[in-house]
Specification:
This protein is mainly α and about 180 residues long. The chain has helices spanning about 5-15, 25-35, 40-50, 50-65, 85-115, 120-150, 150-160, 165-175, and strands at about 40, 70, 80. Strands 1-3-2 form a three-stranded antiparallel β-sheet. α5 (about 85-115) packs antiparallel against α6. The longest helix has 29 residues, at about 85-115.
Length: about 180
C-alpha cells in the first residue's frame, strides 16, 4: 500500500467512528474505494493486517449499507468486492441508508407522539416542539428524495449555488416586504 493510500485508509478509520462506523470498517471501505481492482477478503485482511473473521463481518456490514458490490472472477471461487466507481452513487447510497436507519424511524416516532392528545400544558408545549422537528425533518426528507432523482450534474450545480440562494432570498424579501417568507 502506498504512503498516500495508507494515510487515507488510516484517516477513514479515524473518521469512521464519527460517521457511525467502527474504525476497521472505515479502513476497509477506504481500501476498497481507493483500489482500482476488486479485492477479496484475504487481500483486505493482509493489506490491513486484520483478522479474516473481522473482514467477513465488515464486508457483511458494508453490503448491508449498499456501499460495496460483489463480483466473481472466472475460475476463482472467491468473492471479490469493489465500491461503485461513481462517488455520487456512493453518496446517494449513504444518504438513503442513513435515512432508512435513522431518519425514517425518528419521523415515525414523532408522528406517533403527534397522534396522541396532550394531557396537560407541558405535553402541549412538547407536542408543538415535536411538530416543528417533524416538519423540518419531513421537509429535509422530501428534499433528499428530490436529490436522489436528480442527475449528478444538476446536484453539482445546485451545490455550487451555495450562498447565491441565500442572496436570492434576501432580494425576494426586499422586493416583497411583508410577505410571509416561510414558504
Amino acid at each position: 500500500m502506498s504512503p498516500i493510500i495508507h494515510s487515507l485508509v488510516m484517516h477513514f478509520g479515524e473518521m469512521g467512528s464519527r460517521w457511525g462506523l467502527n474504525r476497521t470498517l472505515g479502513q476497509m471501505y477506504a481500501l476498497i474505494v481507493l483500489t482500482e481492482k476488486p479485492l477479496n477478503a484475504d487481500e483486505i485482511s493482509t493489506e490491513l493486517n486484520i483478522s479474516r473473521s473481522n473482514v467477513s463481518m465488515g464486508l457483511k456490514e458494508l453490503k448491508s449499507w449498499n456501499l460495496i458490490k460483489l463480483s466473481h472472477i472466472p475460475g476463482d471461487r472467491k468473492e471479490y468486492f469493489s465500491a461503485p466507481k461513481d462517488v455520487w452513487e456512493i453518496a446517494r447510497n449513504l444518504m438513503m441508508e442513513r435515512r432508512k436507519r435513522e431518519v425514517d424511524p425518528t419521523l415515525s416516532a414523532l408522528r406517533d407522539v403527534l397522534l396522541e392528545a396532550p394531557a396537560n400544558e407541558q405535553e402541549e408545549y412538547a407536542q408543538q416542539r415535536v411538530k416543528q422537528m417533524h416538519d423540518l425533518i419531513e421537509m429535509l426528507t422530501i428534499w433528499t428524495d428530490e436529490l436522489q432523482n436528480m442527475s449528478n450534474d444538476k446536484v453539482a450545480a445546485l451545490l455550487k449555488l451555495g450562498s447565491g440562494l441565500s442572496k436570492l432570498l434576501d432580494v425576494k424579501e426586499r422586493l416583497l416586504p411583508g410577505k410571509n417568507n416561510k414558504e
